[in-house]
Structure formats: C-alpha cells, structure tokens
Amino acid sequence: MTVYSVYEPAGADADTQTRADRIAFVKEGFNWPALFVPLLWLIFQRMWLELVVFVVVIGFVSWIFGTTEAGQEMAGWVTIALSVLFAFEANDLRAWALERRGYRLAAVTSGRDRREAERAFFTAWLPEQSRAMQRLGSPAATKASKGAITPTRPAGGDEVIGSFPRA
Questions:
Q1: pLDDT tens digits, one per residue of 11-32
Q2: What are the CA-CA distances from residue 57 to residues 25, 85, 93, 140, 162 (Å)?
Q3: Domain spans in the chain, listed from the N-terminal domain onward
Q4: pLDDT digits (tens, 9 = 90+) for 57-113
Q5: From the CB of residue 74, how many other CB atoms can be counted at a distance below 10 Å?
Q6: CB burial readout 11-50, b (16+ within 10 A) else e
Q7: DSSP run (H or E) holding 113
Q8: Going along 44-144, which residue ranges are E strands?
Q9: Would strands 24-27 and 160-161 be described as parallel, antiparallel, or unpaired?
C-alpha cells in the first residue's frame, strides 16, 4: 500500500469541479524521478526555490573539493550521497512547497497505486462537498440544480439513430 498526503487549495472555490482539479496528491516515501533527474523533477513540480538551493549546494560541493582528480572524485561521491538524500526528502519538500503556495492538508489516503488512492479519497470527499454546498445553500449549488439537464424521451417519429434521424 502506498500512502498519499492530499493537499487542497485554501481558497474556497464554489465550484467543486475546479477544486477537485486543483487537489494535489503527494506520495510518502522515496521518489525515483527525483533521484535520477532531480533538476527536471524540480522544474516539473515548479519548485523554484528548491531548484536554486539544489544547484547552489551542488556547485558549492564542486567548488569546495577543487579541481584535482582526487577532489573531483570526492565531489562525485558527495554529490551522489546528496542526490540520494534529496530523493528521500523530495516529496516532503513538495508538500512544504504546496503549503507555501497556500495549500492545506486535506486528508491522508492510501491505495495500491495512485489511481486507487484518488478513488478512495474522492469517494469520501465528493459527498462531503455536496452536503456542505447544500448546508450553505450556495449559489453554485442552486445554479447546478436549476441548470441541470433532465433526460427526455423522443416523441413518436423523432427517433434518432446515431447523429441522423431515421428516414
């Protein structure tokens, strides 16, 4: 089972669909992409502050050990160790970055994979959101119920097959 922390934007959008699209799932534990391509992973996650710190630290390590062959070898080993440490902490750094952007921890969920964890979270979250909308009597809830499409049956002779009426 994989455990995910679920982060929701702090701004209370009235539209549940918009809020659901902005929810972020952060896996707990080791992050393989952050180990193999840390710079690309940081760019993809839009973690600019962490990217700058990572580049400065790696540059500092290279500068500290110098340009000698032994220094470069030692700098390589230290860089590998820092990359492994970064991969262990990458998801925690992502959670911290989300909190800096105004997200809040909404829940912790688990599943065999991300899809199952998302299904478990949204199965509990969506009914809770609809109850909250009904309690508040929000304009979005009343607009959704008034503008809902009601299914109708075609009148005799108006039967449609695919996109074309039957002749």
A1: 766 678 888 889 999 999 999 9
A2: 28, 13, 16, 48, 62
A3: 2-145
A4: 999 999 999 889 999 999 999 999 999 999 999 999 999 999 999 999 999 999 999
A5: 15
A6: eeeeebeebbeebbebeeeebeebbeebeebbeebebeeb
A7: none
A8: 103-111
A9: unpaired
